4-hydroxy-tetrahydrodipicolinate synthase (Natronocella acetinitrilica), 291 residues
Amino acid sequence: MFRGSMVAMVTPMFEDGAIDEEGLARLVEFHVDNGTDAIVAVGTTGESATLDYDEHCHVMRKVVEMACGRIPVIGGTGANSTWEAIKLTRCAMEGGCDAALLVVPYYNKPTQEGLYQHYKAVADAVPIPQILYNVPGRTACDMLPETVERLADIPNIVAIKETVSVQRAREIIERCGDRLDVYSGEDGVSREILLAGGKGVISVTANVAPQQMHDMCQAAISGDRETAEAIDARLAALHKALFVESNPIPVKWAVSQLGLIGPSIRLPLTPLSEQHHETVRQAMLLAGVLE
């Protein structure tokens, strides 16, 4: 349904933690101007874990309003409570989002049947297109390919963001690539997933290097390995540097270095440690996003 580089956009904040709406507007314009193919609002990188329900819905609505139909907006609406996920997904739909991204329920560690029933319940309750999101490193629960294959039969489940490995992504493409789009959730391996038949990446790196990520994705999706590898080689250090501390700590600092937002982040996350500043800065220089 969506193709290319989809930014997992940061949520700008003031020092007191309040949402910076002017900063939010600057980010939307930045992505429209620099080729980003879709915006994910209030995903993990957007600090969904520390925004309350009203803030969550407000940011999704504001991004839709600011995008004004120029770029698709996907709302991050996952929760470890099925009821809460339904409520957030309904909010995304009513706020004008083009789709919803739902992370695997975290902490409570459901069974594979529980995962199936969770996603089915949300899809049955809210008719907006929905994207599954499997990230066991954060959720402590791995949604297996056979469960994804079952969910692919539900009409408004349209894609999955997969983070486990290139091999896992290939298996899902083989099982249900004709019914479900597969997106990379890891910038460092996204090129290979796209060359294997994936349709895009939900990207942290695109916060900092949106045009380069767009160009790399277009090359890889079209099968132009040489061009995709050349672009990705310049981004490799950035893919790595943006995870020197927990996401979104490094990327929020990096976006602040572009002058688009301030570096503030909500507890329990803290600003990027000074010892990592030069590592991230050098990666940005290599990527060509700083002079």
The mean pLDDT is 97. The chain has one domain: 4-228.
